[in-house]
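Expect chain and fold; thus:
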Amino acid sequence: MTSSIAWGLALAMTSSLAFAQTDSSANDGRRWLAGDHHVHSRFSARYTPDPAAPGAPPVPQLGGDGNHTIIQNAEAAHRYGLSWMVSTDHGGPLHARLNAEQAWPELLLARESVPGLILFYGMEFDTPGAEHSSLIIPRSTHEREDLLQIESRYGRRQPWPEDPARDTEAFMLEALRDIAAMDPRPVMVTNHPSRSATGLGEYGEVRPHQLRDWSEITPRVVIGMEGAPGHQADGLFADGRPDPAGSRGIYRRFPTMGGFDQMTARLGGVWDSLLGEGRRWWITATSDSHTHISEGGDDFWPGEYAKTYVMARADGADILDGLREGRVFVTTGDLISGLDMTVTAGGRTATIGGALAGGGEDIVVTLRVRDPRAANAGGQTPSVNHIDLIVGDVSPQGADRDADTNPTTRVERRFTAADWTVDGEVLTMTHRLPASGGPRYLRVRGTSGTETEPLVDTPGEDPWSDLWFYGNPVFLTE
């Protein structure tokens, strides 16, 4: 990283802090803390048969599917402005013991080595009947034992010989009920939900009915999905040239859209369908870091490209509370570094992740967005081109558990530079909604580009040229 980029990142971090502190009294001392809940280390092993012992469990090869130490990941996360990170290695045959005996001690060393980073223990859970999820273990005196218990009992790939009974949707629900009874209670986020999809609306290993099932069984455990998956450097060679065989997110069958999974990016699609049923279902953005692009890999370092911002105090428990409550916005390429959406009616106020009772008054939406002037890690200084305020109606769930559309979702207002005021790096804009709109939700997205809807990403696309941010919703109840 060049000195100018490093300086730019430092300025961006400072500006973001100042933006957050402006409203710290109203936020109970909380501020926007950037993080990443999906990061792999050398303990994401690759498994090979032991030729000397036919029938024996395959041998884990450390570094086979992730070549960095947990300490290296933590150092990179801190370098790129993250306040928190989750170490999430893949499972595998008998991996729970490897996790407990080898990864756990290294995670403790990483906490000592990078004290400025709040580092969570976790794993990329091999989700029964689906694909993968980030499993985040709350910090406690028994973190190691909690993850050992979950992975041993419920990891889809954990047993040897393989056990097909562990790869069912019913087994996942059993696992979630057990996890929900733990104290403190873990958090789980569905990873790259449409990576196995074969087309738009043609889902693969993760289907909408599963998201509904999980959110109903354990709404305080499974809290949402990756809106922007990792592996965003897959479309580039190490020298930055486009790789025509590569695709953002390694979405080989059906591409991402503006770097985001179709379940999030499609206006009126799966995410809006869930929100339109009143579900508190949040989105995040991650690196899914295994091997860095400079090393011939598909990935950026944690925080180098994608960030999940949580409104929280610098405390592990409050960060997890922020994730559960949806006090979250996400961005790619450091397009923005702060997003406040304040929704008021009469004297009542709600912010991202919250709810507001209308009470018969008009609704006033105020957006404050920090568009940093400093260069991002790609050496660019992108600007916000336009910002969309999106509205969808909330109504009872229908009979179709795989419903993936909300036809009421619409762009209520598109803001451009002509519509906002500028104070340094902060863009401010407002919009008024009529009181008689019924139960609704409001959410915000923005982009550096001119397209009105996120387009399907093309092979070899430069991720730095197509940046988006998304905020989680505010619900209006009446």
User: Anything to note?
Assistant: The CA atoms of residues 447 and 468 lie 4 Å apart. Confidence is low (pLDDT under 50) at residues 1-18, 20-25.
